[in-house]
Design brief:
The complex is a heterodimer of chains A (about 80) and B (about 1050). Chain A has about 80 residues and is mainly beta. Chain A has no helices and 6 strands. In chain A, β5 and β6 form a beta hairpin. Chain B contains 45 helices and 22 strands. In chain B, α6 runs antiparallel to α7. Chain B is globular, with a radius of gyration of 33 Å. Classes of the chains: A mainly beta (about 80), B alpha/beta (about 1050).
Chain lengths: ~80, ~1050
């Protein structure tokens, strides 16, 4: 099971690389492994920018999907897997 | 440094500069795209072939593959583009297997290409409905010469791996190895940056390693750059009937399927460098697949022991004796000369095929006439293919065919439209389904279709799109921006709303993209070699088999096209002749005298609506000034009213010389016999050839080259080179240098606009004869052309109006008299029941059969008991007066129709009609009757609508078209009527001139509107005004016309009287 969050999150790490960690609900999650990576064009006709998605595993064993909005360059937590 | 060993194809169109740049760039190639879709993937490719090839060349790729879905329609264009860019074309296809899986195939040379065509033919013909599919057995039978890649995510192996069915994936891979061989089957890796992509590639690589198979990297390219993704998404939505807001598995998630650079591919496939290198090896193994060197001539099935050349000679001489009676030496010399060229080029079978088709049609009583440059051939005339005496007219065979211009032979024959399909079916059965197929057309996006289809995807309401699309003229989808600036009717700010401007940008991006394959109107290819080896065959919507190439590509592939065209005029002629013969059994269309004074009188009167080729306003204006009194005038007329002569300003000098107002002079005595019949004006292409031969001493082939340089290419360099050649040779021929130069300048000035005399003569014969029918048998002729609509220039209502103005009564439909077509009835024309809106074939048949079997209907009730007609048809029959002879009150009949209350709304403004109270209803007024009948029939059977306004129009100072005939030149007038066919033909100056006619109860008035007036009020004509009042100046030049100064909608005049 998974639930969609789709909220901006703070991340740390080198620009253009997979984030080292992200902060959600005041707690930092360290990324231990990248499981998958893909891109989505979004609603281009409504002016949405492309998003780069990452499915990651954290050090605590949780699986999350985070994405970077290519226009705002902000990171979002998209999905949390139970 | 690694060499690919790729050899560039040797086709001659490769320019030196492009080759040099590309070869330099190719010094260290890293990667070749082997899986590429173009717009010929039909709504699944969003960049033109030329753009894709140019990008590949720019990236230094030594080759590029084209792998469209289940077709090779882009192959010829792709080949040409690659050769021009100096890279190697790899022809392939992405096939759909039975069950829906994809597989990428590449032909390693001509044999592989032939197999590609064979298996695609089976895929299309075995699965004519829905998506074509290649059966497993078919793939196995035609795998020779093919290299296979395991495909995109929709490939069988990737799909099984994604479903984690590893054992089945391995089994499938082993199967493909069996089919193609281990060294011909590759595992395809595509890094499309979709979820699961990396894992899929890992699984594919593991499988390849386990089975010892090669890996190749592709990007499943669907467009040139990532910025083209929106266009691809829009096309995908069109293909699947979606709007952009709808989710569908066919829509791509991201913009990654573009033609990536070798460096980008290197980054993506850094874990699989061998997959990149192998793309070069695959490209190296493939040779160009298409064969452009051979002319694939058709074969005529000869009687045992017969030789085609001998048979052709026998038939030509037999025909010549029939046509000319006694043969003299000059006729024999002409025939021998033509036969020598025909047989030397190997075209004897082609001539026999054309003869056989026209001969068969004659035996079946199917009227036909050859057209085009084939009418330059005396052999074609003797064989009965054409009706133009090429020998008698002195037409030049070289315009049609010469030893120096092999290929591109094209015989076009018009057949009676009603029976044309019988002829094409005969030809297809005669030469067999393996050797005959229809030529395809590439139906492309134009402004209107692009606005409609893309607008629908973007969510615009259909009614709004329809309104918008209809306002655009018939222009290319990328000309919308220019049109908004150019056409006054598009200047309204409403057309520039931001959302529309966005829509127009997308329309421009798909301009010229093929949307789907269509079927050529009449082109059939007949080949000695099985066609399925040259082109995939498929079934068209109308049930015939087509190749996957259009007429130009077919010609490039060396196939000969035979045009079996359909001409409604011939159907009308046939019907008119049958009708005339009922009254005059001795009448013969073929023996119509070509010197009938009354027919020429009709032409001079310009009352030529309905006459083949001579009915447009421009033709009628010409006729009123030319003073035609012989067949040569008709031939010249057909040639003169064309964009070329009009733009070339040839019409005025021709008319002046014909009228004796300008002296006919010749630059050299050698020109006189050539130009005599056109008063010294170079009007026909044959004359250019004759001048080049007589003055320049050119060979027939050289002379025809001169004609082609002038008429088509018009490259300045080519023109100068051939001009220099002409002058040099003319001087050597004894012509003074200044004269030679002036003659060439004259040719340059006129010949570019010249017309093929043979074609003009072929059309002129039909034009003159239909004028004869219109003059002497107007009732039969007008009835026949009304029955064969749509044809010609005018709406049936205009034809009815013209017929009426010539004294022919147009009678309304009558349930006991009218038939399926317009019928001649005691000197009048009876409108048929088929004309009633909503009428269907079965209901019409039911009515006619009931009448034939049980006699006339006695009453409306009798009709209803005998015929099962839907309510909407019944209402329309009542409204157009079809039951008037059975019941005097239309409203009463309508009131009795319980089952059609919705249809009756508005017909009973005050009460709803119910059975029983019917007799209380007063009938419609005459005006209402006319209006309803017009709505139902689309033609007026009574008073013309303008006639009912005549009193008010007269009070407003408007003259009728009849009154206008007596007004002197230069007088200011007002005229009113219904706008007929406004059009803006190209002009030499580039300025706009609008021509249209105004129809009133007395006939037509031709109006000319120059740019100034057009800018002011011309938009009204193109915005659906319907009827207008024109203020202008009378111009009398032969006939009478009005030069418009102001145009107003008839319904928007100041005092709103109308």
């Amino acid at each position: 099971m998974a639930r969609i969050v789709d909220r901006p999150v703070e991340v740390t790490g080198a620009e253009g690389k997979r984030p080292d960690q992200f902060c959600w609900r005041g707690r930092w999650y360290r990324v231990s492994r990248g499981l998958d990576y893909w891109k989505e064009a979004g609603r281009w006709w409504a002016g949405e920018a492309e998003k780069g998605f990452l499915r990651v595993q954290t050090a605590t064993g949780g699986v999350f999907e985070i994405y970077r909005d290519c226009a705002s360059k902000r990171w979002y937590l998209y999905k949390v897997y139970d | 440094m690694r060499s690919t060993g790729i050899v560039l194809p040797s086709a001659g169109t490769c320019t030196k500069s492009m080759t040099r740049v590309s070869v330099k760039a190719m010094s260290n190639p890293k990667f070749v795209h082997l899986h590429v879709h173009s717009p010929f993937s039909f709504l699944d490719g969003a960049s033109s072939i030329e753009d894709l090839v140019a990008a590949a060349a720019r990236y230094g790729m030594p080759a590029l593959a084209l792998t469209d879905h289940n077709n090779v329609s882009g192959a010829v264009r792709f080949y040409r583009a690659c050769v021009a860019a100096g890279i190697k074309p790899l022809q392939g296809v992405e096939i759909t297997l039975e069950g829906g899986a994809h597989l990428t195939l590449l032909a390693d040379g001509p044999e592989g290409y032939a197999n590609l065509c064979r298996l695609l033919s089976r895929a299309h013909l075995d699965f004519p409905c829905g998506e074509p599919q290649v059966a497993e057995t078919v793939l196995a039978a035609h795998s020779t010469g093919l290299l296979a890649l395991s495909g995109c995510r929709r490939g069988e192996i990737p799909a099984l791996l994604l479903a984690r069915r590893f054992a089945e994936a391995e089994k499938a891979a082993r199967h493909y190895v069996e089919v193609f061989g281990r060294d011909r089957f590759f595992i395809e890796l595509t890094h499309d940056l979709l979820p699961g992509g990396s894992a899929l590639n890992r699984s594919l690589a593991e499988l390849a390693e386990r089975l010892d198979l090669g890996l190749v990297a592709t990007n499943n390219v669907h467009y040139r750059a990532g910025t083209d993704f929106p266009i691809h998404d829009l096309l995908t939505c069109i293909r699947n009937g979606l709007t952009v807001e709808e989710i569908h598995p066919e829509r791509r998630l991201n913009a990654e399927l573009y033609l990536k650079s070798p460096e980008e591919m290197e980054r993506l496939f850094s874990a699989y460098p061998e997959a990149l290198a192998r793309t070069l090896e695959v490209a190296e193994r493939c040779r160009p697949a298409l064969d452009f060197e051979h002319c694939r001539l058709p074969s005529y099935p000869l009687p045992l022991g017969k030789n085609a050349a001998v048979l052709l000679r026998t038939l030509a001489y037999r025909g010549a004796r029939k046509r000319y009676g006694q043969l003299n030496a000059r006729i024999e010399e002409r025939l021998e000369g033509e036969l020598h060229v025909i047989c030397s080029l190997g075209y004897e079978d082609y001539f026999l095929i054309a003869w056989d088709a026209s001969n068969w049609a004659s035996r079946q009583g199917i009227r036909h006439a050859g057209r085009g440059s084939a009418a330059d051939s005396a052999v074609a005339y003797c064989l009965g293919i054409t009706e133009v005496d090429a020998f008698g007219r002195g037409l030049l065979f070289e315009r049609f065919l010469s030893l120096e211009r092999a290929g591109a032979l094209d015989i076009d024959i018009d057949f009676d439209a009603r029976r044309r399909d019988e002829v094409s079916a005969y030809v297809c059965s005669r030469y067999g389904p393996e050797h005959t197929a229809w030529v395809a057309t590439y139906s492309t996006f134009r402004a209107r279709s692009a606005v409609r289809e893309i607008g629908k995807v973007l969510g615009f309401p259909a009614a709004e799109l329809d309104r918008l699309a209809k306002r655009f003229p018939h222009i290319a989808a990328d000309d919308i921006g220019q049109a908004l600036e150019f056409y006054p009717e598009l200047r309204h700010p409403d057309f520039r709303r931001p959302e529309y401007l966005e829509l127009y940008r997308y329309c421009a991006a798909v301009a010229g993209f093929p949307r789907h394959l269509g079927t050529h109107l009449g082109g059939i290819v007949i080949s000695r070699q099985p066609l399925a080896e040259i082109s995939p065959l498929q079934q068209a919507a109308k049930g015939v088999t087509t190749v996957q190439f259009d007429k130009d590509d077919v010609e490039d592939l060396g196939l000969l096209k035979f045009d079996i065209l359909s001409l409604r005029t011939l159907g009308a002629v046939d019907e008119a002749v049958s009708s005339i013969r009922r009254r005059d059994p001795g009448f013969s269309y073929d023996r119509i005298p070509d010197n009938d004074a009354e027919t020429y009188g009709l032409l001079r009167s310009a009352e030529t609506v309905g006459v083949f080729q001579l009915e447009s306003p421009a033709q009628r204006a010409l006729q009123s000034r030319l003073g035609a009194d012989n067949m040569e005038d008709v031939v010249a007329s057909v040639a003169l009213i064309r964009p070329g002569p009009v733009q070339g300003n040839m019409v005025e000098p021709y008319i002046n010389r014909r009228q004796g107002k300008e002296t006919v002079t010749y630059l050299h005595p050698k020109l006189e016999p050539i130009l005599e019949k056109t008063y010294g004006v170079v009007l026909f292409q044959e004359q250019v050839i004759a001048i080049a031969k007589a003055v320049g001493g050119f060979t027939p082939g050289e002379a025809d080259r001169l004609r082609r340089v002038m008429s088509k290419r018009r490259s300045m360099q080519e023109m100068q080179a051939i001009g220099g050649d002409f002058v040099t040779k003319a001087v050597a021929n004894g012509v003074e240098i200044g004269t030679a130069r002036r003659i060439f300048e004259c040719l340059k000035g006129y010949a570019g606009y010249g017309f093929c005399e043979a074609h003009a003569a072929a059309f002129a014969t039909t034009a003159y004869r239909t004028a004869y029918l219109a003059q002497h048998h107007p009732v039969e002729y007008f009835a026949a052309i009304l029955s064969n609509q749509p044809m010609g220039y005018y709406h049936p209502d205009t034809i009815c109006n013209v017929a009426r103005s010539r004294g022919v009564e147009i009678r309304p439909p009558d349930i006991n008299i009218s038939g399926a077509g317009f019928a001649v009835e005691d000197g009048a024309i009876r409108v048929p029941l088929s004309r009633v809106r909503g009428m269907t074939g079965p209901v019409l048949q039911d009515m006619l059969q009931s009448r034939e079997g049980q006699g006339p209907f006695g009453s409306f009730g009798d009709f209803r008991e005998r015929v099962r007609a839907p309510a909407d048809i019944l209402v329309n029959l009542i409204l157009c007066g079809a039951f008037d002879s059975l019941h005097p009150n239309r409203r009463v009949l309508l009131a009795g129709l319980r089952e059609a209350p919705a249809l009756k709304e508005g017909l009973f403004p005050d009460h709803r009609g119910t059975a029983g109270e019917g007799e209380k209803w007063p009938d419609f007024s005459p005006g209402e009757k006319r209006a309803y009948a017009y709505q139902v029939l689309g033609i007026n059977t009574g008073l013309h609508p303008v006639a009912s306004l005549r009193q008010k129009l007269a009070a407003h100072g408007c003259l009728s078209s009849a009154e206008l005939k007596n007004v002197p030149d230069g007088r200011e007038v007002k005229v009113a009527g219904i706008v007929i066919q406004p059009h803006r033909p190209p002009t030499r100056s580039g300025r706009i001139v609008v021509f249209f006619s105004l129809e009133d109860e007395c006939g037509l008035t031709d109006i000319t509107m120059f740019e100034e007036c057009y800018r002011r009020s011309g938009w009204i004509l193109f915005a659906g005004a319907g009827a207008v009042i024109v203020q202008g100046t009378v111009q009398r030049r032969g006939g009478v016309a009005v030069i418009a100064n102001q145009v107003n909608s008839l319904w928007q005049t100041k005092n709103r009287h109308f």
